[in-house]
Specification:
InterPro entries: 3KSR/17beta-HSD, NAD(P)-bd_dom_sf. This is Hydroxysteroid 17-beta dehydrogenase 7. GO terms for molecular function: 3-beta-hydroxysteroid 3-dehydrogenase (NADP+) activity; 5-alpha-androstane-3-beta,17-beta-diol dehydrogenase (NADP+) activity; estradiol 17-beta-dehydrogenase [NAD(P)+] activity. It is a single chain. This protein has about 250 residues and is α/β, with parallel strands linked by helices. The chain has 11 helices and 8 strands. A hairpin with a 2-residue loop joins strand 4 and strand 5. The relative contact order is 0.14. About 0% of the residues have low confidence.
Length: about 250
């Protein structure tokens, strides 16, 4: 999330609307970023949050698939992952200002389609299982060095007591990395073949500090996921071709 900025005008309008809780838990419409190209000629946020990991999974595919015990991928997504920020025609989000949201929605799409390809989960059926299971988690709102860059430190110190109070109403305000890891740890203990591939598992913390996991259905279109997967494969081929001499 490079150079994150708050749209204070949108924030003010949100505070006056009936969607204030939704806005505070998803940052919808109030968070913008200025992205840039990396050394490979790719949009940096897309490459960092998704494409690098996708290429790693593809390179390890032979090791991950067809084993006696299932392999699993756990992607860290976000409640800020929104379809409205993503476009198949601009899947690297070169033209927008919500690259983080776009990359996290792209992560959700990727997880869904990997399940269809490698463990046969498709419309409730299990076909041609290869034993690779993919899941998505959201750590909630965690205060980190990335979060602290959004506003000056003194403002965060003033806001923190309010944020602890908000947690009575917004359970995804996990605030600490320990609480944010709840869904990751819980998911690792589950049998992946029994998990719903269309669900995102959210780390939640009650107002009194109890940590738990809440599954929520993802707003993803499986046909869009398939089309996006094909675009990722094309981009992977172009990238590998670009560095063929180094790889050889």
């Amino acid at each position: 999330m490079p150079n994150p900025h708050v749209n204070f005008k949108a924030l003010w309008h949100g505070l006056l609307s009936g969607k204030v809780l939704h806005m505070l838990t998803t940052a919808e419409g109030i968070m913008t970023q200025t992205d840039r190209l990396n050394g490979d000629g790719l949009q940096e946020v897309f490459a960092t949050n998704l494409f690098g990991h996708f290429m790693l999974v593809r390179q390890l595919q032979a090791l991950l698939c067809g084993n006696e015990k299932p392999s699993r991928l756990i992607w860290t997504s976000s409640s800020n992952a929104r379809e409205s920020a993503f476009s198949l025609s601009d899947y690297q989000h070169a033209k927008g200002q919500e690259s983080y949201s776009s990359s996290k929605y792209a992560t959700d799409l990727t997880s869904v389609v990997l399940n269809r390809k490698f463990n046969g989960q498709q419309s409730g059926a299990f076909l041609n299982a290869q034993g690779l299971y993919s899941s998505v988690v959201c750590p909630g709102l965690v205060m980190s060095n990335m979060t602290y860059r959004i506003l000056p430190i003194f403002l965060w110190k003033l806001l923190m007591p309010i944020m602890w109070l908000i947690r009575f109403f917004a359970k995804t305000y996990t605030l600490t990395p320990y609480n944010g890891a709840e869904a990751h740890v819980w998911l690792f203990k589950q049998k992946p073949e029994y998990l719903d591939s269309l669900v995102k598992y959210h780390s939640c913390t009650s107002g009194l500090g109890r940590c738990y996991v809440e599954p929520r259905k993802m707003d993803v279109d499986e046909d869009t996921a398939e089309k996006f997967y094909q675009k990722l494969l094309e981009l992977e081929e172009q990238t590998l071709e670009k560095y063929r001499d180094l790889l050889d």
